[in-house]
Amino acid sequence: AHREILDERSALFVAPHDAAGIARAILRVVEDAPAARARAEAGMATLRGHSPPEIARQYEGIYRALAARKSKGDVRSP
Q1: What is the pLDDT of residues 23-66, one digit of tens each?
Q2: Which sign does the torsion angle of CA 44, 46, 13, 29 carry?
């Protein structure tokens, strides 16, 4: 799910049970502050369109569309 909103420009992805990989990622962040800052800025830019009110509006639109389809007897996905 995280990769739907973040990419390699904005985050370091590590397998959750890979302790060595997590340690390498932490060291990478600590040792290269400018790159870490650039990833953080890229992530923040991506997330600006994903504020809680905007996400709520999107969910509301989906629910309304599904409710309208169900009331018409069309239960296929949008």
Answers
A1: 999 999 999 999 999 999 998 888 877 788 888 998 999 999 99
A2: negative
